[in-house]
């Protein structure tokens, strides 16, 4: 009796050590495929099974699908559940583990087609349960060989699956949060997203107004209203998406924050929400890169028999108030200040070109060539102010 008790104590100690190692291993990743692969490898090794499957319930439609398998060399078959469907469905439905030492003689399963066709013998399947909910099951079997698994093996596999269920749920939640973050960033600029997340807590849902010195860059396609009338709806959206995709890439590469799209126009800020000392220089280099990108875009347009476009850009530097405006139901990060209006005004000067205010010109480093342009009365001003033009002119439509 003492010998049996000692052996059991050793077995329990070994089991606890194995489970500890598994828990540590699973906690090292939040990628679902990595977690599933680690679970599957450990299950096959410990159970000494011929093959195994991890089947998960789709959270949307409730269907069952194989998410990870082992023991099947054929990649096509590896994506299919080749075990006893009756067993797996029973485990998922009841939330209770099943062990069969010989399925071909087991009254519960011996008449099932999968058992007969595949000569299934030893089977264990246990539910994956987290937060009181069955999210799938772990299934292992050994065709042709009976009496491989015992009741204690079912207990060990269930202990492994309990750890796996937590890791799988965490990985799914992480994937979901990353998906939502990417979805959010597709509608709200990444700078704003990161800035809000870094500064937010349970009580702060929006950014209060903050005064920033920034450089605004506004772009506007000349004659776009006339151009849009000659396009079908789908063609127009495709055109704008192609154009904006190029412009957005340039802006983000130079550290700009896209504040909003206004039809064919794009309002960009350098220096908010994240402050920067070289906002004017960054804005100018972004404008230069946008000019070159418009030229490439036009060459493609002309090559496919479509008209070229002319894009006007305006830059102005000064103080703005940056923050969220709206209500608890709907709010938007926005910028309020004279540079917003001035940059928009300069972008609409025709023929289209890249123009900047004196305040922007004053913040540029030496070596950047600009030309004098005719003075203008800008927003909030009473007297004409010096205006400067970028030396490289924008491609104009013919």
Query: Any low-confidence stretches, pLDDT <50, length ≥5?
Result: 1-10, 393-398
**Mean model confidence by pLDDT:** 81
Please name the CATH topology of the largest domain: Beta-Lactamase
Q: Bin the strand percentage.
A: 15-25%
Number of strands: 13
Domain module count: 2
How would the blueprint of this fold be written?
Blueprint: H1 2-26, H2 32-47, E1 51-57, E2 64-70, H3 75-78, H4 85-94, E3 98-100, H5 113-117, E4 122-130, E5 133-142, H6 151-187, H7 190-199, E6 210-221, H8 224-229, H9 233-253, E7 257-262, E8 265-270, H10 279-303, E9 311-326, E10 331-336, H11 338-347, E11 354-357, H12 358-362, E12 370-376, E13 385-390
Helix pairs in contact: 1-6, 2-6, 9-10
What can you see in these coordinates?
This protein is an alpha+beta fold. It has 2 domains: 2-187, Beta-Lactamase (2-Layer Sandwich), CATH 3.30.450; 206-390, Alpha-Beta Plaits. The protein is 44% helix and 25% strand. The protein is built from 12 helices and 13 strands. The chain has helices at 2-26, 32-47, 75-78, 85-94, 113-117, 151-187, 190-199, 224-229, 233-253, 279-303, 338-347, 358-362, and strands at residues 51-57, 64-70, 98-100, 122-130, 133-142, 210-221, 257-262, 265-270, 311-326, 331-336, 354-357, 370-376, 385-390. The strands form 2 sheets. Strands 6, 7, 8, 9, 10, 11, 12 and 13 form an 8-stranded mixed sheet that branches. The protein has a 5-stranded antiparallel sheet with strand order 2-1-5-4-3, sandwiched between helices. A hairpin with an 8-residue loop joins strand 12 (370-376) and strand 13. The longest helix has 37 residues, at 151-187. The chain is elongated.
């Amino acid at each position: 009796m003492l010998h049996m008790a000692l052996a059991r104590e050793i077995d329990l100690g070994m089991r606890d050590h194995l489970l500890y190692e598994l828990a540590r291993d699973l906690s090292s990743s939040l990628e679902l495929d990595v977690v599933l692969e680690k679970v599957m490898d450990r299950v096959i090794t410990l159970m000494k099974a011929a093959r195994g499957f991890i089947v998960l319930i789709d959270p949307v439609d409730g269907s069952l699908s194989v998410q990870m398998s082992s023991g099947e060399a054929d990649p096509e078959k590896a994506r299919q559940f080749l075990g006893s469907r009756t067993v797996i469905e029973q485990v998922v439905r009841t939330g209770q583990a099943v062990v069969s030492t010989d399925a071909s003689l087991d009254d519960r399963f011996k008449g099932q087609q999968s058992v007969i066709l595949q000569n299934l013998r030893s089977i264990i399947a246990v539910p994956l349960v987290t937060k009181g909910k069955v999210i799938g099951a772990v299934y292992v079997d050994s065709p042709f060989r009976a009496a491989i698994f015992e009741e204690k093996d079912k207990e060990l596999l269930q202990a492994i699956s309990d750890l796996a269920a937590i890791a799988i749920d965490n990985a799914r939640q992480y994937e979901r949060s990353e998906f939502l973050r990417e979805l959010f960033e597709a509608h709200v600029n990444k700078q704003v997203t990161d800035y809000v997340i870094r500064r937010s807590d349970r009580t702060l849902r929006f950014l209060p107004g903050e005064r920033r010195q920034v450089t605004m860059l506004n772009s506007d396609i000349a004659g776009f209203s006339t151009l849009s009338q000659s396009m079908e709806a789908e063609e127009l959206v495709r055109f704008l998406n192609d154009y904006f995709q190029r412009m957005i890439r340039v802006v983000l590469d130079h550290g700009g924050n896209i504040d909003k799209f206004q039809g064919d126009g794009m309002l960009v800020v350098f220096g908010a929400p994240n402050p920067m000392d070289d906002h004017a220089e960054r804005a100018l280099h972004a404008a230069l890169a946008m000019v070159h990108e418009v030229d490439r875009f036009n060459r493609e347009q002309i090559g496919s028999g479509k008209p070229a476009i002319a894009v006007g850009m305006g830059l102005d530097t000064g103080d703005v108030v940056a923050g969220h405006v709206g209500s608890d139901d709907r709010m938007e990060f926005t910028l309020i200040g004279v540079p917003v209006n001035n940059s928009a005004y300069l972008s609409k000067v025709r023929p289209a070109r890249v123009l900047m205010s004196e305040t922007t010109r004053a913040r540029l480093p030496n070596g950047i060539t600009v030309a004098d342009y005719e003075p203008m009365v800008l927003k909030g001003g009473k007297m004409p102010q010096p205006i400067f033009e970028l030396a490289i002119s924008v491609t104009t439509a013919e």
